[in-house]
Amino acid sequence: MRKLLFTITLTSIFLYSCNKPKETTTPKATPDIRTQAETLAKKFIITDGHIDLPYKLAEEGYMAKGTIPDLSGEIDGNFDYIKSKKGGLDVPFMSIYLPASLQKTSGASKVLADSLISMVEQIVDTYPAHFALAGSPAEAIQNFEKGLISLPMGMENGSGIEDNIENVKYFYDRGIRYVTLTHSKNNLICDSSYDPTRKWNGLSPFGREVVKEMNAQGIMVDIAHVSDSTFYQVMEMTDVPCIASHSSVRQFTPGFERNMSDDMIKLLAKKNGVIQINFGSTFLLQKSRQLYDTAKMALKEYKAQNPNASDSAITAFSNQWLIDNDFFADVKDAADHIDYVVKLVGVDYVGLGSDFDGVGNSLPNRLKTAADYPKLIEELLNRGYSEEDIEKICYKNVFRVWDAVLKAAGKS
């Protein structure tokens, strides 16, 4: 959701096992659940459908400078090499996020998309011992076996395609492997879940062409952010499975169309797709959603009363307000969403889509950075999930969809 949430700080509130050889040593006593979870996080590939690092770096001025921070170490934020290695994150999809505001200026979305893609390429070129590009599950597996973190890319907002169908192939060639059809506003492709005007009542005529061309080129269709009508129309026409790269379950957040209803999850699963659970607190808990507007008002009042407050003071106020008002979800709440999907349609249709570096300081307790995936795995183990189940949730389900889309396009 970026972007509509707390991005420090509004300024804070807005500013196989991969065929990996198994150990042959004599097994010791059964490890405790926490140790088992940490072991599985390293043993299995973990893929995450949505990490907003590129746009975060652009906001911090790196794109304008033509530089990047030292991503081989730790940086401020939810994602970097150290955090990822600690948490076992191996295949984070880099979000090429295109703000809806750019749709007002012809060419602006595509220009930004190209710049952000180039930034991801720069990361790989600068740190080849740490990161690598990946255009397929096979490439991601090869990188994993070399100890490299793969950086596949998904474009968040199809506005980058503009009104030129040839740009679908262009972005495939540039490394884009999924496209979120829209973001916070209706665009030339379809209606957004956040936009009440519903210009197209779903897909536009051009949007239908885009979906077909994405199928033809081997780009996964991402139905996160779209209106319900758009979702059902995509399901009617797509020939291959789809993903919801960073969405959660509407049952826990009634009326929040950005999350998926039971009927939508069932249809996505029937089509062999995957919902990747968003970790943002307002995606996980109705209580957090209800506090969101109050939090914005509290921050506004604080700024009015303290016009000379520093950014650090504003950040401290925001964070303390959220703590004092019990805003944050917990890792258990993320597990509840996974549980719900599994009970509704089975373990083959759910994955992880954290929205790290995109939902700012709204992330749950015990699930704040890429170092924290073992805590989610621990929670699933405590609930009786098998290692096979966890392997599917960590990567196999998403890789199945990714492979199917590439195969249908003759690119696998």
Average pLDDT confidence is: 93
Q: Considering DSSP H and I runs of 4 or more, what fraction of the residues is helical?
A: 40-55%
What can be said about the biggest beta sheet?
Answer: 5 strands, parallel
Number of helices: 16
Alpha carbon gap, first and last residue: 31 Å
Total strands: 10
Q: Report strand %.
A: 5-15%
> Reading side by side through the largest sheet, how are the strands ordered?
1-2-5-6-7
Reading the helices and strands in chain order gives HEHHHEHEHEEHEHEHEHEHHHHEHH
Shape: globular
Low-confidence stretches: 1-29
Q: What is the CA-based Rg, rounded?
A: 20 Å
Q: What's the number of domains?
A: 1
- CATH class placement: Alpha Beta
Helical/strand content category: alpha/beta
Looking at CATH, the homologous superfamily is: Metal-dependent hydrolases
CATH architecture: Alpha-Beta Barrel
| The CATH topology | TIM Barrel
Structure overview:
The structure is a single chain. The radius of gyration is 20 Å and the shape is globular. The chain has a 5-stranded parallel beta sheet, with helices on both faces. Strands 8-9-10 form a 3-stranded parallel beta sheet. It has one domain: TIM Barrel. It has helices at about 35-45, 55-60, 60-65, 80-85, 110-125, 135-145, 165-175, 205-215, 230-235, 260-270, 280-285, 285-305, 310-325, 330-345, 375-380, 385-410, and strands spanning about 45-50, 90-95, 130, 150, 155, 175-180, 220, 245, 275, 350. With about 400 residues, the chain is an alpha/beta fold.
